[in-house]
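Researcher: Please generate the 3D structure of the following complex. Treat every line as part of one assembly.
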Amino acid sequence: MDLRDALRAFAKARDWDDRYHTPKNLVMALSAEVGELTDLFQWLTPEEAQNAMQDPELAWNVRDELADVMHYLTRLADKLGVDLVEASFAKIERNEQRFPTGDLRPVPVEKGEM
Amino acid sequence: MDLRDALRAFAKARDWDDRYHTPKNLVMALSAEVGELTDLFQWLTPEEAQNAMQDPELAWNVRDELADVMHYLTRLADKLGVDLVEASFAKIERNEQRFPTGDLRPVPVEKGEM
Amino acid sequence: MDLRDALRAFAKARDWDDRYHTPKNLVMALSAEVGELTDLFQWLTPEEAQNAMQDPELAWNVRDELADVMHYLTRLADKLGVDLVEASFAKIERNEQRFPTGDLRPVPVEKGEM
Amino acid sequence: MDLRDALRAFAKARDWDDRYHTPKNLVMALSAEVGELTDLFQWLTPEEAQNAMQDPELAWNVRDELADVMHYLTRLADKLGVDLVEASFAKIERNEQRFPTGDLRPVPVEKGEM
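Model: Done. Output below.
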């Protein structure tokens, strides 16, 4: 079973699919989970953040929060009928146009954007 | 090529991987993109949000923002060495324990949590 | 003592001002606290959210999280040398131009924006 | 007129107060605006972020986004009947207990928290 179907089954088995998993609620849940992920990194120096996964407790929490974000993102896309992987590759193609390699112009405001 | 590798190649080809895609920056970028997704839904009624994908322009924007969120989530997990799908299934198993089906207790504070 | 000065003194007394309260860290902390506020509202129906303050425990948590958001917003503005109230009134003036009252055009995409 | 009243009048004059400014919508709007603020800082180095206000265009955008965040935070507190300044000072008092000065224990996980 893929992740989308596993999460859909999980929600349906608990009667959450219709009651709680509306698009607005899922956007909020996604946002709250990104907040929890942010909380793990906010006071770290750039170097500490780079080495975050060497601290077993922090690494466990990072994995846990990344999973939560992935869950709500997957659920939201599912409820909206969007294929996340397809949409992601389509966006990469658009970004190839927006940010050609070998571009010699100064780094744009949108530097680092994907 | 899978999404993780495609995004990694995209970043490396533009010299963004080392310069911009640090863990803290990617957490912020993820958070900013979730903000753009939130912006699309914030003033919609629950019903309008439910039908968001029937409006072609809104649907296009929703797909675009979901892709952006997926990109930064994938990049962040990649930089931290976390397998997103594996972490997601591991979390589902933990959630099966936390929220057993057939539970007759009153709906907990954490209702709707995954 | 006003709020800005009280928070500045609080941070300095704990040696947090220079060590942790950098602009990027404070933006992340602000974002994480908005995530905690979002968490309180995400599964509520619109009606439940409207009556949130009638539930003493929820009301206490809402007040607590609003304060946290206000703290980091105030600290961030302070570190950047921005007068929050002055900037807020200046933005109201710009919004008066962007969204004239008595405008008979259809509600714009940016409806509800301030 | 204070900021809360100015924003309330602005929303009422446009019929936004009842139609759009519900608690859930305002939480989402607050979150989206923090996302726009995050967007301004995400790719900056810590040093660039520290000097953000020396770049006139960036400084203008930072002021603009800080104002937007302040607007929605003020509106949300107003709709919920919370006095932001009072709640903020009450939280400082609680934080004085949680994080005593002169504490010689190792820096806690919650370091930098207010």
